[in-house]
């Protein structure tokens, strides 16, 4: 059997990374940055361990959610593209991803203060200094290693979300290369700019993103849009879901895991976590019902698929504000988010570019709506438009434009670069055969 050179190169890279990690000289955690282990709150540790497990479960849940929606010849390939992110992004996060996201800020100086665009890539490389002592700023009541692992789960699911748009026509090895580039070039700087204490968007612009509406869903949504434009339409774009029970199972796993996603972002077992837990489930319930009723009002049948998509859209929309709004407001978030995403799903112009599983219409648009609604409703003095924060709202809208351009434009260039290195689209023969057999030699 002839082995392609790209697979040999990939194996050599993995080998070098493993050996480098073994030889890497680790430095002890600095007492200037880390608290002692006496400051650990064991209730917070227990909750954050649980929340990390819940967020991890979301990626297999997403694989079932997407796998049930595609054609029978592409179920395994679609599910694997989500599942493989557990391996690829986990290692990438340990080697350099976490350091780029949460290392000391490298950016621009405004009024004598540095506002970060990216983190120092060497500070936490190979989890250097990422130990059991709590960081004074990043999760001050839990071990720093737990904070890093919790954030890892967010990095894993973000490129996995993109896969739904590219299903049934993207080459597997090309996808692996792209998600590495996307994580390093798009995800980590966006994560740093919004979630690092000195991040440009979070600290200077005041952008509020409680659990990843901007960092995760907008970035994935716009990357998906860029991907389908570069890839082009499928030869047969007829959409016949293979296994609706898979979609129902995946939705349940996503909803369950999302409690860790949102409530876990409080980084403590406290009242904010409890409120985020509540707003998450209420927004999803509201969006589910809104979606199925809105479908019926538009002459479509009430479907299990629609109910599942609606529920997930509600989860997406509430994510950036889960800890910032009230229960009635979360109900409205789910309601309006479902209507807007529903209209986008059936928008003819968006259908023409063949986003296979409507990733941009659900995650991208859902993230946009969440960001806008957060800027309007977030509670607290001068926290949003309704609480006197006119400038905060304006900054959110500026950031919305900047993030959209950065994530779409950057992802478009990365897809083009990937295509130059390894062609990203499978052959017409492989596409007709189905990616399960042509790419993986397996059959559903």
The tally of helices reads 17
Outline: globular
| Content-based structural category | mainly alpha
The radius of gyration is 21 Å
- Approximately how much helix is present in the residues? 55-70%
Strand order of the largest sheet: 1-2
Q: pLDDT under 50 segments (min length 5)?
A: none
- Main sheet? 2 strands, antiparallel
CATH architecture: Orthogonal Bundle
- End-to-end distance, in Å? 24 Å
Q: What is the CATH topology?
A: Ammonium transporter fold
**CATH class category label:** Mainly Alpha
CATH homologous superfamily (4th level) name: Ammonium transporter AmtB like domains
Characteristic terms for this protein:
two-stranded antiparallel sheet, 66% helix, globular, mainly alpha, Ammonium transporter fold
SSE arrangement:
Elements (H helix, E strand, L loop, with lengths): L4 H19 L18 H26 L7 H9 L1 H18 L2 E6 L2 E7 L24 H23 L5 H24 L4 H5 L8 H19 L12 H20 L7 H27 L6 H15 L8 H19 L2 H4 L7 H19 L12 H32 L6 H6 L1 H6 L4
Antiparallel strand pairs: 1-2
Helix pairs in contact: 2-3, 2-5, 2-9, 3-5, 4-5, 4-6, 5-6, 5-8, 6-8, 6-15, 8-14, 8-15, 9-10, 9-11, 10-11, 10-12, 11-12, 11-14, 12-14, 14-15
């Amino acid at each position: 059997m002839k082995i392609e050179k790209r697979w040999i190169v990939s194996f050599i890279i993995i080998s070098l990374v493993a050996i480098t990690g073994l030889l890497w000289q680790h430095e002890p955690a600095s007492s200037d940055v880390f608290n002692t282990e006496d400051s650990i709150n064991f209730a917070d540790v227990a909750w954050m361990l649980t929340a990390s497990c819940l967020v991890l479960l979301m990626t297999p849940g997403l694989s079932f959610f997407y796998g049930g929606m595609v054609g029978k010849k592409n179920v395994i390939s679609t599910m694997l593209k989500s599942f493989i992110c557990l391996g690829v992004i986990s290692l990438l996060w340990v080697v350099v991803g976490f350091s780029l996201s949460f290392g000391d800020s490298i950016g621009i100086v405004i009024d004598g203060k540095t506002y970060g665009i990216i983190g120092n890539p060497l500070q936490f490389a190979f989890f250097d200094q990422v130990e059991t002592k709590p960081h004074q700023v990043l999760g001050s009541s839990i071990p720093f290693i737990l904070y890093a692992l919790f954030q890892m789960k967010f990095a894993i699911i973000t490129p996995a979300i993109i896969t739904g748009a590219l299903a049934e026509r993207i080459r597997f090895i090309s996808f692996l290369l792209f998600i590495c580039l996307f994580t390093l070039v798009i995800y980590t700087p966006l994560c740093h700019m919004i979630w690092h204490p000195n991040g440009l968007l979070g600290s200077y612009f005041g952008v509020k993103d409680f659990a990843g509406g901007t960092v995760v869903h907008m970035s994935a949504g716009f990357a998906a849009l860029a991907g389908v434009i570069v890839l082009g339409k499928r030869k047969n774009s007829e959409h016949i879901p293979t296994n609706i029970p898979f979609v129902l199972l995946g939705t349940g796993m996503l909803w369950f895991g999302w409690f860790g996603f949102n409530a876990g972002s409080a980084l403590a077992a406290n009242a904010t976590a409890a409120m985020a837990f509540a707003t998450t489930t209420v927004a999803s319930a509201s969006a589910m019902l809104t979606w199925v009723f809105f479908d019926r009002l538009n002459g479509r049948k009430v479907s299990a698929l629609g109910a599942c998509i609606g529920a997930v859209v509600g989860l997406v929309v509430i994510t950036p504000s889960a800890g910032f709004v009230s229960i009635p407001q979360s109900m409205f978030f789910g309601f309006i988010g479902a209507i807007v995403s529903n209209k986008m799903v059936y928008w003819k112009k968006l259908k023409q570019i063949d986003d296979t599983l409507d990733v941009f219409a659900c995650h991208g648009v859902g993230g946009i709506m969440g960001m806008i609604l957060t800027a309007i409703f977030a509670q607290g003095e001068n926290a949003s438009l309704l609480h006197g924060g006119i400038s905060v709202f304006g900054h959110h809208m500026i950031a919305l434009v900047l993030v959209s351009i950065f994530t779409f434009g950057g992802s478009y260039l990365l897809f083009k670069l990937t295509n130059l290195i390894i062609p990203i689209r499978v052959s017409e023969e492989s596409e007709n055969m189905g990616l399960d057999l042509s790419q993986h030699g397996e059959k559903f």
